[in-house]
Amino acid sequence: MISSPYLLYLGSATDDLSVKTAIGVAAWRPELCIGEFQSEGCTVTLNLPRMDFEQAAAAGVQTVVLGVTNAGGVMNPQLIEHILEAIRAGLNVASGLHQRLRTHPTIAKEAALKGVELHDLRHPPEDLGVGTGVPRRGLRMLTVGSDCSVGKMYATLAIEREMHSRNIKANFRATGQTGILIAQSGIAVDAVVADFISGAAERLSPARDDDGWDLIEGQGSLFHPSFAGVSLGLLHGSQPDAIVLCHAPERPHMRGIASRALPSLQDCLNANLEAGRLTNPDIVAAGVAVNTSRLDPEQRQRCFDSIEDLLNLPCEDPVATGVKKITDNLIKCVDKSKAA
């Protein structure tokens, strides 16, 4: 577990995209976030109190979250110095960068001296096993995508929030760096060796007997040539009772591959259901979550209506409209499947 509360580190960021990790954590777990750290030149804010590391420690912060990304995922000299300042203030540090905190000799030495924890979010546990496909108890939902970066994390978190509002036990199971900070635990499956992805998914969502749900954050897309492997491993290891398909309707092509068109939603849904039947023959589709941020309200409703007519599934935007209909159908169709 990553100890909270958090101080969100923004560094000298000048655009929202470079601090999307911090933005996601602040949006979905505001109760964990006490303040933000900005260095000279920073023009981005999360509207949290600005603090240095000593002030954060005095305010009760437990972990500094490096909410920044950069080309190559490496630590520049300024960031290294700030990490050392945070450690000397007695704060844990969590990083989603590719370069490990624990392999930097000075950072590791200072952390040992101060007795603080270093969390390298992109580096999975070393004792993962391969998937077994053995059926396990519990209820599980996995978000899947027509492409990468279409809102799978947001959809999963929105369903968790909706279930909690109904007093239904539900746990968001994180598979990416931002999700891990939100859940305070998880496995970054894009860093898992291919043979162990399904095993990682099994570890993330173990058997449960409390009638609660594991809501598993999806990654990639079965139709993306670069990332289909991680999507398939998650689908097999999660053994989901239901999937929710996520889609960005205005996207012109697969992300990063201009020559490849997006799949049809029917083909995408069918492929995920067929692949999922390997480990859960009773898998069903519960709904479609769309990112309509580029559509006006009238266009959004036409998009919903078109997809609902095509797939006969509820369609909603987790951010703009919520996921009440998707959650209703998720519970209903899984209850019906279990009864059968």
TrEMBL record:
Tell me where in this chain the D-glutamate N-acetyltransferase-like C-terminal domain is found. Answer: 132-326
User: Domain of life, per the record?
Assistant: Bacteria
All residue ranges annotated as the D-glutamate N-acetyltransferase-like N-terminal domain in the record = 41-124
Pfam families with a match to the protein in the record: DUF1611 (PF07755), DUF1611_N (PF17396)
Specify the protein name.
Answer: EBNA-1 nuclear protein
Source organism of the structure: Woeseia oceani
For this protein's source organism, the top of the classification is: Bacteria, Pseudomonadati, Pseudomonadota, Gammaproteobacteria, Woeseiales
